[in-house]
Amino acid sequence: MSSTPPRWLDWLKSLPLYLLPHHAISRLVHRLARWETRAKNPVLRWFIHHYGVAMGEAQESRPETYASFNAFFTRALRPEVRPLDPNPLALLSPADSTVSALGRIHDGRIFQAKGHEYSLDILVGGDPRRADPFRNGHFITLYLSPRDYHRVHMPAAGRLLETVYVPGRLFSVAPHTVRTIPNLFARNERVACLFDTDRGPLASIMVGAINVGSIELVWAGEITPPQHDLTVTRYDHRPVQLARGAEMGRFNLGSTVILLLPEGPFTWNAELAPGVRVKMGQALGKWEG
Q: Tell me: the pLDDT tens digits for 90-138?
């Protein structure tokens, strides 16, 4: 995916995105996705067939029982189909997704794709003090495609310190745009959730995209559709403690999650590479004991 050089078709598909009214389109999709009508049923059946959605894993496998497209898209899975890796030192995948990029953060610069890096400081809202714990740490970027399960879970147990809503564009985050649009993840609307864990700081960043009608957090509800100002919410006096593997949020339609870890004794699993699919609860790497 992200390590592949862009092709001419990637540029052809990406350039029109600069002209589209991202937020207007996404607001329309937000309304349509929540429209409760039986007319959605043939659309759902087409979507499931076209994208190969594994409905056998869902708590409710019959598409017609979902009240709206959004209810289907944010469907719950049967707990037994996503067991958590039993190693307490393992960092869990927060979502069913495909690895876009992973590795080390070098002096506050994060790899996006061949020829593209972006700023850690800007990603987390522009405050260097917020970025400092991760400045030479570790990162992984995970892309959620339309067929994926779209709830996002905790990669490790943690106490929420703050959330940072960062307004921005809503470019697609599909592989062709990752290869072609500079600073993509630091330009798009996003919500950065910063946690304290037994292994130190951890950030889970939910990046919006075109047609992503909303980002929701379990402790705060719907964070987007868009606002106009950067918003920081501290949780010093409102403790939010989430267990390993607990749901923390959800997307409508496909998007991206970026995990940040501080510098230290942590190793990504050797089989991980751009293009590798992972499932929620699977070990992505582990801390040394």
A: 999 999 999 999 999 999 999 998 889 999 999 999 999 999 999 999 9
- Let me know how long the chain is: 289
Question: Annotated catalytic residue: which of 10, 96, 121, 148?
Answer: 96
Closest residue by Cα to residue 232 from 163, 167, 160, 132: 163
Pick the catalytic residue from 23, 116, 138, 153.
153
DSSP per-residue letters across 150-207: -EEE-SS-EEEEEEEEE--B----SHHHHHHSTTHHHHB-EEEEEEEETTEEEEEEEE
**Is 96 tagged catalytic?**
yes
To the question of pTM greater than 0.85 for the whole model, the response is yes
Give the list of residues 6+ apart from residue 113 with CB closer than 8 angstroms, or none: 1, 2, 3, 4, 6, 100, 101, 178, 179
Torsion 185-70-277-10 (CA) sign: negative
**Joined tokens for residue 116:** 């593209």
CB distance 178 to 186 below 8 Å: no
